[in-house]
Specification:
Layout lengths: L7 H29 L3 H32 L14
Helix pairs in contact: 1-2
This protein binds zinc ion (ZN).
Amino acid sequence: MEVIRGCAECKRLAQAYESETMNWFRLEGHLRIAEYGRDPDAVSRIASELDATTRQRNEVRAAIEKHKHDFHSGGSQTNPLAMRA
Ligand SMILES: [Zn+2]
């Protein structure tokens, strides 16, 4: 995920995105194990957690896009517009 150097909000959002991504991979691994072990209860529980994580991750991604649009319009890395207000 591309971030704007020196922007605390970009850094925070990038870290949130990374942690949701790690979560997603972890759950995905658990899901494979539950499927392999033919444990339908665990599969449905993990699948719904995976769903929630996917949504969270999409929300963080949308927040990154919105933040970049609002504060770094044009995607300039050298001239952030965060000070315009
Ligand atoms: Zn930023």
